[in-house]
Specification:
- This protein has 67 residues and is mainly alpha-helical.
- It has a domain at 2-44.
- It contains two helices and no strands.
Length: 67
């Protein structure tokens, strides 16, 4: 089923081009490279750049996985 959804999103061009999750050939590394490229491009154009990060690594620590 997930493959059908992924295929539909791809065929209908509903997934943003910068979407890295759940896409073949894209990864955390490709997302990071895009962020770095955007920051460097803004710096070259003398633009102010703000980067806001949200760490959700412990977001599911309180979920009872045994239930």
């Amino acid at each position: 089923m997930i493959e059908q959804i992924r295929a539909h999103l791809s065929e209908c061009e509903l997934m943003p081009s910068v979407q890295s999750a759940y896409r073949q050939g894209h990864s955390t590394e490709s997302a990071l490279m895009k962020v770095i490229a955007d920051i460097l491009d803004a710096a070259d154009r003398r633009k102010v750049t703000l980067l806001d990060l949200l760490d959700m690594s412990a977001a599911f620590d309180t979920v009872d996985h045994g239930a």
